TrEMBL record:
GO biological process, one term: proteolysis
The protein's role, per its UniProt record: This enzyme catalyzes the hydrolysis of the N-terminal peptide bond of an N-acetylated peptide to generate an N-acetylated amino acid and a peptide with a free N-terminus. It preferentially cleaves off Ac-Ala, Ac-Met and Ac-Ser. Also, involved in the degradation of oxidized and glycated proteins.
Official protein name in the record: Acyl-peptide hydrolase
Keyword Acetylation: yes
Pfam families reported for this sequence: PD40, Peptidase_S9
Boundaries of every Peptidase S9 prolyl oligopeptidase catalytic domain copy: 454-661
Length: 661
């Protein structure tokens, strides 16, 4: 044994040295890491079940643009192949029903509009399949026999070659939409494309939109979604319709719910359709959660499978035998996979935990495919065999391996009115739990959304800069039931702020946060709540309000939420006192003490720049430290990679200035 001691000592020394070197090479997140993070989306299983295609979006930092390519991974996870390399980008990859071909959408090779391209699975270059001269292709679906494709085409905009563009003439009730811009009457219709003859037949007509085509298993019919009320702009109704897959066929309405019906899928035997419908039947639906339903292909009364669950359900997929439906359920800070039995509606949790599942697709074997992320792992694709997940893609291994990420935990706080609120805490890597740190409350938008145990780049980034970061699922959030979600109806900036302050009290009282170094920020409704919170309480020493608004009446007719104003608040000339009461951050700006930066996209039609500009001007007039950052050419979401990096740099610089003196 004496001879073994030196050897053991050398081994232990080498192991310790190697471990120290491996851990020391890790670093905190930094803003430039936005160039390294990839996005995985739209997984599709090949008909034989041997491959999974998906879209992988990566950043070209030299060109300052994000490019999407099509990849595929084998079902056993042993092979990964990039299918497209075009700098123009490809998306909406689909397998032909016989599995011999693979299609995708792209505007490659200098095309002025997107077309469908076809690639032989055995190899070779992709060939352009469609040559649509008029209109924009938005979606498509192969027929079961592989001979036709259902096309979704938006009517063309003005393509005049005159140097002076024509005036935009508007006569719609809702005339603005972020990204789309001003809305004219350009309906979206369904068409049939014959692959052999390349002939296009019109399926639907009129001044309505038809979307989301789904072929029946026998190929005889196509189900689709449409709002065919007298004036679709004045409500959020949508219904499921079916039409025979041939020209001049008559369409039939299946659902009659005055709320929303959508996200449907045919049963394997083609006799029923599963879909999601809104809980509310009102003409404006904001605070709501979807219910899992089934209905006969001939119509009639639907069966509501998840009505008693009181949680939102998404992504319904039939089991192979048609006796149950798998779906995703949003619960308190998580999203799990569940199975609903058709016969009795009984729900069985299949896969849960502190993680978030985002996709479901059925494998020919009857197993499933899913995508999932957790607080330390960006989204990846998983095979779900016998309800056990097996990771297929590993695109983020290199990204994660170089980083020391925040530790993430949940906690529950009590608001001053006794409401229990669920929160998530991000602690800097290797931070002591006994150390009080500067703490930033980063508030989610929506408001109908929730912070989950999933990978969150913004909060990880701020934690990497040395901050505890808190995510608050305030009243108005999903995952806690419909009453919790609807609690803020026409009462913005009240209960949500109470919940944020309750969470702030918790982290201070429990020695997590330094009470003198609290910050707050958010984007969209998170920016709005930032304005509301700093106008209510002066404890926050720095704030960052992104794409927010504080003078509510100033956005009536300026943003895209005319239905919300009309139905939730009423018209300003009838209910102006309500608009005034909800505008207190602007009208009482002289009470605010918090230095605040304001950010917004120049072309944002969701929450236009005027909301940020007004608050910035008020701060400048009052002498409160402030700055205004407007990102040129950006909509509500900042998509330019260099601007994404810039925003992180400005977050960190602003909070460091006031919280790390």
């Amino acid at each position: 044994m004496k001879k073994l001691v030196p050897v053991l000592a050398v081994f232990m020394f080498s192991f310790t040295l190697g471990y120290a070197q491996s851990t020391s090479t890790k670093r905190n997140l930094k803003p430039s890491d936005v160039y390294r993070l990839q996005n995985i989306s739209d997984p599709q299983i090949s008909p034989d079940g041997n491959w999974v295609s998906y879209t992988l979006s990566s950043v070209d930092s030299i060109k300052n643009k994000r490019n999407a390519d099509i990849w595929m991974v084998s079902w056993d996870g042993k092979e990964s192949i990039q299918l497209t390399y075009s700098p123009d980008g490809e998306s909406q990859g689909r397998w032909s029903p016989d599995g011999k071909y693979f299609s995708f959408v792209s505007a490659r090779n200098g095309l002025t509009s997107s077309q469908i391209w076809l690639m032989d699975r055995r190899g070779g270059e992709a060939k352009q399949l469609t040559d649509l001269k008029k209109g924009d292709l938005t979606d498509y679906a192969w027929s079961p026999d592989g001979k036709k494709i259902a096309l979704v085409i938006k009517s063309p905009a003005d393509t005049s070659k005159n140097k002076t563009p024509k005036p935009i003439v508007l006569d719609r009730f809702q005339f603005k939409q972020d990204v789309e811009g001003y809305l004219t009457k350009k309906p979206v219709h369904l068409y049939l494309y014959d692959i052999a003859t390349k002939k296009i037949d019109t399926l639907t007509k009129g001044n309505f939109d038809e979307t989301n085509p789904k072929w029946s298993p026998d190929g005889g019919q196509i189900a689709f979604i449409s709002n065919r009320t007298e004036d679709p702009d004045r409500n959020e109704n949508s219904d499921i319709w079916v039409i025979d897959a041939k020209p001049n066929a008559k369409m039939k309405q299946l659902t009659t719910w005055t709320g929303r019906d959508g996200s449907m899928e045919w049963s394997p035997d083609g006799k029923r359709i599963t879909y999601l419908r809104s809980t509310s039947s009102e003409n404006y639906i904001m605070y709501d959660q979807s219910i899992l339903c089934t209905i006969s292909k001939d119509g009639g009364e639907p069966t509501l499978l998840s009505k008693a669950l009181d949680r939102p359900v998404t992504a319904p997929r039939w089991s192979k035998d048609g006796n149950s439906i798998y779906a995703l359920v949003a619960d308190d800070r998580i999203r799990y996979i569940a199975q609903f039995t058709i016969a009795d509606g009984k729900m069985n949790k299949i896969l849960s935990g502190n993680k978030s599942f985002n996709t479901l697709e059925r494998h020919p074997s009857g197993n499933f495919l899913t995508t999932m992320s957790d607080p330390q792992t960006p989204l990846e694709i998983y095979a779900l065999e016998n309800n056990v997940p097996r990771r297929l893609t590993k695109h983020h291994e290199d990204f994660v391996s170089k980083l020391s990420l925040a530790t993430v935990e949940g906690f529950t706080s009590k608001s001053k009115d006794g409401t229990s609120v669920s929160n998530i805490l991000y602690r800097p890597a290797n931070a002591s739990k006994t150390e009080k740190l500067p703490t930033i409350f980063m508030i989610h938008g929506g408001p109908v959304a929730q912070d989950e145990f999933s990978f969150d780049l913004t909060r990880q980034m701020l934690s990497g800069a040395g901050y505890n970061v808190v995510a608050v699922n305030y009243r108005g959030s999903t995952g806690r039931g419909l009453d919790f979600c609807k609690a803020i109806w026409a009462d913005w900036g009240n209960k949500e702020v109470i919940d944020i302050l309750g969470a702030a009290d918790y982290v201070v009282q429990n020695g997590i946060a330094d009470a003198d170094k609290l910050g707050i920020g958010g984007w969209s409704y998170g920016g709005i709540l930032t304005d509301y919170t700093i106008a209510t309480d002066t404890r926050f020493k720095a704030a960052s309000s992104g794409a927010g608004v504080a003078m509510i009446s100033s956005l009536y007719g300026v943003d895209q939420y005319i239905l919300q104003y009309e139905n939730e608040l009423g018209s300003p000339w009838k209910n102006f006192d309500k608009y005034v009461s909800l505008s207190y951050p602007f009208l009482k700006a002289d009470r605010i003490k918090t230095p605040t930066q304001f950010m917004v996209g120049e072309s944002d039609f969701n929450v236009p720049s005027v909301g940020s500009e007004q608050m910035y001007q008020a701060f400048r007039s009052l002498g409160i430290p402030t700055e205004l950052i407007i990102y040129p050419g950006q909509f509500h979401g900042i998509t330019n990679p260099s601007f994404q990096k810039d925003r992180f740099e400005r977050y960190i610089s602003w909070f460091n200035k006031y919280l790390k003196k």
